[in-house]
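stage 2 :: seqdesign
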């Protein structure tokens, strides 16, 4: 049975940097196929260009999939032939709505169960969980509770990169929002099946946390992170 793998990134790493190499290495293939979904930013051309700049053509076979305008035929076949599906940041709620209209959510689950590595940063990390902390609904951060649910619990990206992320997540969990994981920018949380396999980082001292209630208080449990070379 294929290993189901998801990597939730707190924030995008450096172009052609250690995190991008780590994502490709999980496939154990010399030149894996990777497809980029920029749905969360409306398939913005500059986001797609940055994807092609971030991954070296010698290391992988790159493609992208647009859902705005007239989607091309063969979406399911294309996604199921990928080794990695990489999802951008942006508006999580809008992205999920578009995915559900086009049945991308079901295709992604099928790909995951077949062993495709699912990954992404910010919106592209929150989406795999039951919910997370998002600015999808306006300038103030708010809870999102209708993620894809491949992984239990919630996720908060940009834990050290945006000043309101950490206090908002702590306050919401204290108020009954489901517990979950949080990751600093340039940190990746690798889950095999539904269990934590490893935390990796491009930056010294950056890390991820389990955030959960302990009686009447909220605790952050730091997770050891491996610094990528």
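stage 2 :: out
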């Amino acid at each position: 049975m294929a290993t189901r793998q998801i990597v939730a990134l707190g924030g995008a790493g450096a172009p052609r940097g250690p995190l991008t190499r780590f994502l490709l290495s999980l496939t154990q293939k010399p030149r894996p196929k990777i497809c980029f979904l920029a749905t969360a930013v409306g398939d913005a051309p500059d986001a797609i260009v940055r994807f092609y700049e971030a991954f070296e053509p010698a290391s992988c076979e790159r493609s992208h999939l647009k859902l705005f305008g007239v989607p091309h035929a063969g979406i399911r076949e294309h996604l199921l032939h990928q080794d990695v599906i990489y999802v951008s940041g942006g508006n999580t709620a809008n992205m999920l709505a578009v995915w559900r209209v086009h049945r991308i959510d079901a295709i992604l689950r099928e790909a995951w169960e077949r062993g495709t590595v699912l990954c992404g940063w910010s919106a592209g990390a929150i989406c795999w969980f039951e919910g997370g902390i998002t600015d999808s609904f306006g300038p103030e951060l708010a809870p999102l509770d209708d993620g894809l649910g491949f992984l239990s619990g919630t996720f908060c990206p940009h834990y050290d990169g945006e000043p309101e992320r950490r206090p908002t997540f702590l306050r919401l969990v204290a108020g009954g929002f489901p517990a979950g994981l949080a990751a600093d920018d340039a940190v990746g949380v690798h889950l095999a099946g539904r269990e934590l396999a490893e935390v990796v980082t491009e930056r010294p001292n950056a890390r991820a946390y389990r955030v959960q209630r302990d009686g009447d208080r909220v605790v952050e449990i730091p997770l050891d992170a491996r610094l990528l070379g």
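stage 3 :: structure notes
- The mean pLDDT is 96.
- The radius of gyration is 16 Å.
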